[in-house]
Specification:
The chain has one domain. The C terminus is likely disordered. The protein contains ten helices and two strands; from the N terminus they run αααααααααββα. By secondary structure, it is mainly alpha-helical. Helix 1 crosses helix 2, helix 1 packs antiparallel against helix 5 and helix 5 packs antiparallel against helix 6. The chain is globular. Helix content is 72%, strand content 5%. InterPro entries: Gly_transporter (IPR005115). This is Trimeric intracellular cation channel family protein.
Length: 222
């Protein structure tokens, strides 16, 4: 089995279940759960295809992946309530696995089409994070990729590694997959975040700017 197919399967299962669990957290019905699971699994690939000039209709040729996604959603829906309660503990793992698998899959797809490095990196990022962004928006949440620990950066790094033609075998791709998952989990565990600035509106003092809102919160609670 080609590395592209392996990572397509891994990413589809991980993101389909991720979307299903988020939908259940938001109290969606079975149709909403199915839609959110499928959108999470395939949304990033659709966005990638638009950006690199691949017909969106190629989605319908992925019969096996669509069946796997539907099966994954059904399994998630039928899991015992006790297992689902542990979802929050494993949410980051599902996202990390899906992110890494789809970032590599998207990069391989663009590289096989002989796109330049920039296009390969963008394809990796959009395939890795696009489905999650759409999932969060449909669930009425702020997109995880735009507010949480370092996320999309790892997808871009995977794309750059593949775009520079440093990956030649399936085993090398598997090692890259494990490294991206590991660093994403490090981001979660150690709270690695990109620099940010927060604007606070106050009726009395007007607009204030905070470069480090976390330290500000700590001072308030001290």
């Amino acid at each position: 089995m080609h590395a592209f197919e392996i990572f397509s399967i891994i990413g589809t299962i991980a993101f389909a279940m991720s979307g299903a669990f988020v939908a259940m957290e938001e109290d969606y019905d079975i149709l909403g759960i199915l839609v959110l699971g499928l959108v999470t699994a395939f949304g990033g690939g659709v966005v990638r295809n638009i950006l690199i000039g691949v017909p969106v209709t190629t989605l319908w040729s992925q019969g096996l992946l669509i069946k796997l996604a539907i099966l994954s959603v059904i399994i998630a829906f039928l899991l015992p309530a006790g297992w689902i309660k542990h979802w929050k503990r494993t949410e980051a793992w599902f996202d990390a696995i899906g992110l890494s698998a789809f970032a590599i899959q998207g990069a391989l797809y663009a590289a096989d089409m002989h796109h330049p490095l920039s296009a390969v990196a963008v394809a990796a990022m959009m395939t890795g994070v696009g489905g999650g962004i759409i999932r969060d928006l449909l669930a009425g949440r702020k997109p995880l990729v735009l507010r949480d620990e370092i996320y999309a950066v790892w997808a871009v790094i995977a794309g750059v590694v593949i775009g520079l033609n440093w990956i030649h075998t399936t085993w090398q791709a598997v090692v890259l997959f494990a490294v991206i998952v590991m660093f994403r989990m490090f981001s979660v565990f150690y709270k690695w975040k990109l620099p940010r600035r927060t604007l606070h509106m106050s009726s009395s003092t007007g607009l204030s700017v905070s470069d480090n809102p976390q330290s500000k919160n700590k001072r308030k609670t001290a």
